[in-house]
Amino acid sequence: MIKIEDSFIFRQNDIIVVGCSTGPDSMALVDMLLKIRDKYNLSLIIAHVNHNVREESFQEAEFLKKYCEDNHLIFESMVIENYGDDNFHNEARNIRYSFFENIVHKYEANYLMTAHHGDDLMETILMRIVRGSNLSGYGGFKPIVEMDGYSIVRPLLNYTKKDLEDYDVENNVIYFVDSSNNKDKYTRNRYRKYILPFLKAEEKDVHLKFLKFSNSLLEASRFIDKSRMKALSRVLEDDKIKIDSFLQEDSYLQKEILYYLLEDFYQDDLILVGDRHIGIILDLIHSNRANCFINLPNDVIARKEYNYFSLTRDTDVISSYEIEFDQYVELPNNHQIERISFTEDNSNNICRLSSQDIILPLIVRTRKMGDKMSVKGLDGVKKVKDIFIDKKVSLRNRDSWPIVVDSSGKVVWIPGLKKSKFDKKKTDSYDIILKYS
User: Fold this and answer.
1) Can you give the pTM of this predicted structure?
2) pLDDT tens, position by position, 22-36
3) Which of 3.40.50.300, 3.40.50.10330, 3.50.40.10, 3.40.1080.10 is the CATH number of 322-436?
């Protein structure tokens, strides 16, 4: 019998966002959490992404919405309207986790829980071995990943997909099967259909061997991380690598540095890039040409400019914007800013302003070169770029992050990140309250 408390230590009043697809894995996870909800007084928010590639997906979303209503669960959902590149799984994952993170911040949750299981870990490790990666990549994914203000938790890695399907049968849990999981055109599906059955026939608990393998590699990777971070401090300048300093580092650390920088664009799933790409980047760095670049997957550009090397998102793909704000604005990053009348919230998602201190109308736009803000509680000004770095906002996200300025160009708020000196306390006098969600 699966007992989720054996895999994760819950605390009273935890707030948990659960990524749920209506498949057997995620529905089992939701059922397990429901069974212990009262014991720990858990607040559960079910976050669902409709990938919009199957007709049945809308029926499944409606089922889950009704399921949440019946079980007194908060339900949040989104539909992916468009896909931009050829790698469906990678792009869908990026959109999915961006949505999950928004919901985590909206409810100030402690955890984002997903139903990844032992089979998922095996598939990921095998795919990375075949494609090539670094030590951390070969370890697959971590049971717990510390993010900014919350943790991603995968509490079901000790169990197989069959274990979870058996759980559903025993507990009368209704779930749906995604027919696209049987299509051989997707790489992961081929591993799932042809490789894993062979390994399980050889060793019934092979998933536990893979989990031990993963933990060993991740532990070794954490040790190496310390050396890599020291090396990064020696070679990195304004998000660019100083090539002469970089070439003085050990060749292994050079590759670790490049993988670390690539994670900024490909998150913790480096399926799209591997040893071949690292080799191409190293050839670029060693090139005698002063200025040259190569294109990497997902519109990432690796560029050499004299003694500097950098990774950037293709600016032709990034959509900059500048929107005059009235009462509400829908943003390209799937967030919104609205003017509200009251809230007790005092987080960085709320900004209180007095129209006496600023020049209306307010403008919501993307960052510009040289943007600075007078940070609340600090003397002087700070570069917006440095605030992004302090908050660990990836290069990929900085170009689309909203900046709120008044009509004179003064930065008054960076939603979700930092408040300016213009933000008022709840006890002060103000006539504008803005909410970012």
Assistant:
1) 0.64
2) 999 999 999 999 999
3) 3.50.40.10
